[in-house]
């Protein structure tokens, strides 16, 4: 009797740390810091709708932001499920090759997250929302399962982020096609930037590939130029201009140093942090674009950098 009671207490005492370990494993699987880079895309899309004269209600924006988080989590989970054989050689510490999560469970979780995301988008934004979320989910699956490592794959990964911005516009209904060209161009800029970063990330483990770093740097420069062009054409107030330029400066500082380090010594230990910085930097880029619709839009997007950076100290971004 005494021995049984002791065993029961031991099992109870061990359940807490084990639960925490399980949560940490799944946080690692879904790239927890990166999840906070998804809502700024949606907020940017909502801001673009506002610029086009269609002010979106806050509830659909929040719901679509949550949908974007689920889409991102589903994408990273499926990414690791598809990449399990490669990760077993190159990244054995990841959840699946280290046997902390089964490959089958990862596939099931990834698909479930994508389906819930599409349903949620439909609930809060109707047909346009479910259509946009569905497109994001399809491109995610195409990238993870078929296109990764190809030229089409880099564009597909970029498109998931560009379409995520489009998803945000559905908070105000299907207004994207009624928008001016400068508004339509913003998702394309986001697509190009992330495609360039993905090109660098795909060569993270190779070493000595300075050209890949140059591509990512060129994407960052082009994005900064696009923000300037957006500000000139949008004609924001002086305050909006100052805030947008502050976000641009923060973006340049955030990605500039890691990219310089990766260019100087293109090895996994420098390229990996550069990839992570560029992913987190997208929050600042989204905020800079969104500020053209009003400072509140920029701040709403930019605030997500705080949890993203904080959590990146505990979990890998790439």
UniProtKB/TrEMBL annotation:
Q: Does the keyword Transit peptide apply?
A: no
**Any transmembrane segments, and where?**
105-125, 154-177, 183-201, 213-232, 238-256, 263-285, 297-315
Give the main localization category: membrane
Provide the membrane topology annotation: Multi-pass membrane protein
**Which residues lie within the region annotated Disordered?**
1-21
Give the matching Pfam families.
UbiA (PF01040)
Q: Which UniProt keywords apply?
A: Membrane, Transferase, Transmembrane, Transmembrane helix
The places in or outside the cell where this protein is found are: Cell membrane
Q: Which domain of life is it from?
A: Archaea
InterPro entries attached to this UniProt entry: Prenyltransferase_related (IPR050475), UbiA_prenyltransferase (IPR000537), UbiA_sf (IPR044878)
Cellular component (GO) terms are: plasma membrane
Molecular function (GO) terms for this protein are: transferase activity, transferring alkyl or aryl (other than methyl) groups
The name of this protein is UbiA prenyltransferase
Query: What organism does this protein naturally occur in?
Result: Natrinema versiforme JCM 10478
């Amino acid at each position: 009797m005494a021995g049984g009671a002791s065993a029961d207490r031991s099992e109870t005492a061990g359940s807490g740390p084990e639960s925490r370990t399980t949560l940490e494993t799944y946080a690692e699987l879904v790239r927890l810091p990166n999840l906070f880079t998804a809502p700024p895309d949606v907020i940017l899309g909502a801001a673009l709708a506002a610029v086009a004269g269609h002010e979106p209600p806050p509830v659909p924006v929040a719901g679509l932001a949550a949908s974007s988080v689920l889409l991102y989590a589903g994408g990273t989970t499926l990414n690791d499920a598809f990449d399990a054989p490669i990760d077993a050689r190159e990244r054995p510490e990841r959840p699946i090759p280290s046997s902390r999560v089964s490959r089958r469970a990862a596939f099931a979780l990834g698909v479930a997250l994508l389906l819930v995301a599409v349903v949620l988008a439909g609930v809060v934004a109707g047909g346009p929302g479910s259509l946009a979320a569905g497109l994001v989910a399809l491109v995610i699956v195409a990238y993870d399962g078929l296109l990764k490592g190809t030229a089409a794959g880099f564009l597909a990964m970029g498109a998931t982020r560009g379409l995520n911005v489009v998803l945000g516009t559905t908070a105000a209904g299907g207004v994207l096609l009624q928008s001016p060209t400068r508004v339509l161009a913003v998702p394309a800029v986001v697509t190009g930037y992330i495609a360039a970063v993905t090109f660098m990330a795909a060569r993270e483990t190779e070493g000595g590939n300075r050209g890949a770093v140059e591509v990512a740097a060129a994407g960052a420069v082009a994005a900064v130029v696009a923000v300037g062009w957006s500000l000139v054409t949008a004609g924001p107030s002086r305050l909006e201009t100052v805030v947008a330029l502050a976000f641009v400066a923060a973006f340049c500082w955030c990605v500039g140093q890691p990219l310089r380090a990766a260019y100087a010594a293109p090895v996994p230990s420098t390229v990996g942090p550069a990839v992570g910085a560029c992913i987190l930097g997208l929050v600042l880029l989204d905020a800079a674009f969104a500020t053209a619709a009003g400072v509140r839009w920029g701040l709403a997007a930019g605030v997500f950098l705080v949890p993203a950076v904080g959590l990146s100290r505990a979990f890998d971004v790439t």
